[in-house]
Write a structure and sequence with these properties.
By secondary structure, this protein is an alpha/beta fold. Helices cover 59% and strands 7% of the residues. Strands 2-1-3-4 form a four-stranded parallel sheet, with helices on both faces. InterPro entries: Chorismate_II_sf, Chorismate_mutase-related, CM_dom_sf, CM_II_prokaryot, DGC.
């Protein structure tokens, strides 16, 4: 078969995927509108078995189950962000009066990258403000000033080496909350990615911590 024809078939399939994503998004928005008051919009207790089911379905079709689960994790995270934004716009979800500052490990292991990715997502979703721990450890004045400004701080370390906590400690800063992912059962693997199950489990445990920091320091 001609290579151009095959590429056209790929393009057509991609278009179908985009249409399906748009249809899914419309349902996500409808779900948000149905939720008058939600304490846990993430609904991780539903997402974990959902991802496990998608993984089984993928493997039944001779696909990489972990890869497909990661794809659906990203789709689910995007959907939850849209739901949160839609509910906040309608006044159905309270906004934190003071966002915590979050610092994370960013090494090369799977645990370190999960710490960084979770911190980035907390920042992008407007739940916290991420700052640069490398700058704090490197004595960059503006970043040290931010770390010592007295705002609530969440430190996320990937492993027991606790590089984030120790970098803050150099400047006399003790985080209001310190989470070590290895203590949450996250493996520290070199040259590998974290799993979708690890990601959702960590997010499920960290989001209440962020919300508590915001509510405690915002009153």
């Amino acid at each position: 078969m001609n290579l151009d024809v095959l590429r056209q078939q790929i393009d057509q399939l991609d278009q179908q995927i985009i249409v399906l994503l748009a249809e899914r998004l419309a349902i996500v928005k409808a779900i948000a509108d149905c939720k008058a008051r939600v304490e846990d919009i993430q609904a991780y207790e539903r997402l974990l078995p959902m991802l496990a089911a998608r993984k089984v379905m993928a493997e039944a079709h001779q696909l990489d189950g972990d890869f497909v689960a990661r794809l659906f994790e990203q789709i689910a995270q995007h959907a939850m962000t849209l739901q949160r934004e839609r509910m906040a716009a309608g006044g159905k979800q309270p906004q934190p009066s003071e966002k915590p500052t979050v610092y994370s490990c960013s090494g090369c292991s799977s645990a370190a990258q999960l710490a960084n990715d979770v911190a980035v997502s907390l920042d992008r979703e407007g739940m916290a403000t991420m700052s640069c721990i490398a700058g704090v450890g490197g004595d960059v004045k503006s970043l040290v000033r931010k770390a010592t400004a007295g705002k609530p701080i969440l430190a996320i370390d990937g492993c027991a080496l606790a590089c984030v906590r120790k970098s803050l400690q150099r400047h006399g800063v003790k985080p209001d909350a310190h989470v070590v992912l290895s203590e949450l059962g996250v493996g520290k693997r070199q040259h590998q990615s974290y799993t979708s199950e690890e990601s959702l489990r960590v997010r499920a445990q960290l989001i209440p911590v962020v919300q508590q920091l915001a509510s405690t320091h915002g009153t």
